[in-house]
Amino acid sequence: MVMGKNDELESLRHQVSDITAQIIRNVHRRMELAKQIGEIKSSLGIDVKDEKVEQEIRLRVLSLADEIGMGRDFALQLLNVLLEESEQAQVQKRLQKGQRQTHLGIFMKAKQLEASGKRIIHMEIGEPDYPPPARVGESLADSFRLRQYHYTDTRGIPKLRDAIAEKEGVSEDEVVVTPGGRFAVFSAITSLLKAGQELIVIEPAWPAYKQCADFIGARTKVLRTTFANKWTPDLQQLEEMMNPSTKMIVLNYPNNPTGKILDGKRLERIVSVAKDNGLYLLSDEVYADYTLKKFASIHEYGYDKSILVSSFSKRYAMTGFRVGYAVANNDIIAKIASVQAIGITSVAEPMQRAALAAMSEYPSENVRMMKKRLDFVCGKLKEMSLRFVEPEGAMYVYPELPRGEDIELVEKLLEKGVAIAPGSGFGDYYRQFVRISACQPEKILEKGLTIMASVMKEQA
Ligand code: PMP
Question: Terminal CA-to-CA distance of the chain, rounded, Å?
Fold first, then answer.
């Protein structure tokens, strides 16, 4: 009898092992087919992503799961892993032709050139040149004198959390202080999504959202906007993108790189799409102070699953202090804080105190200066006969190139000592664009743009 059970166990184990081997073989075969499809798509110049085909497979898998009594969530999770792998296999083929360069990559190259003695005009990075408020410096000295340089609560020191809560009109348990807005984005995406689930990003977009999703094996669905439509997202298209794996929409207004601000009506509709589908709504508002028209924060819509991300980097020119924050309901904050507890313990105490000191001032001079610089850059680009949508906020202008591709121009300019960001760093379909950052004094911007004009003339 005991032998019989042992034999049965052995036989079942063999079957499991055989089926696993078959699954691996079939997955491999599936990937080979995906590569072939990728090659054909590439030769026909069609997109790697095909939502319609994907939706057909998804519906087939869901009905099969129901038929055989398999959990829908698990079936979808498996399917998403397969879809992601095939997409990567197809994308890799294209990437071999030309690696995607981001503004950060150009910044690193520019820094290397500077280290070797070359002078560079920085119009590639969103780092204001003006200093933080004077009391920030005093606070740093005080922190040392008063020995305020210890581990703090993972969510941040109570005084800073209270001040942020008051500014944002929430309670302090709805706030977590993070090392920059970037880490708030990272910990929100990585703690709220699982591998295989999807988030929607409106492109052109700051590349970090997709990078965070990639980091945990979540999938990024892109809602593409165009210059012709003034970078306005098509909300009908957004609604059509919903599927059972969709878990989050990411918004970034005022937008990096286009400077767009979404109007209240559209934002309201996005909130209702999120509500109807139970999605998280991550609103990256690090440029909220730099607005040239009315801007409504996600808070004004009272949606329980929204997460606001903000930062001291742009508002107070405190990029290197690495202080930002997230505001959301207590459950979400607890999840975000758990990533912080694992990764960093807390933001450095002197930096939190410096941020608190900064908050007693409103940076009106920074805002005024940025507006003036944006006007200046826009004027110069018009003189160069470049087309662009006038920025409504943020710190950038995103002009279209009349000829050639972004990387070509970016590299030529770097040789001449001017760094700008390639448009394709914000999405694969924007090779005709470059991003100019207005974070330098007008004299320097003028110098950089004059060099850009002469390089573009040579290209003509
Ligand atoms: N979001 C956007 C859209 C950004 O452009 C940046 C910085 N370039 C950040 C977040 C993060 O900034 P920080 O981490 O310095 O707060």
Answer: 87
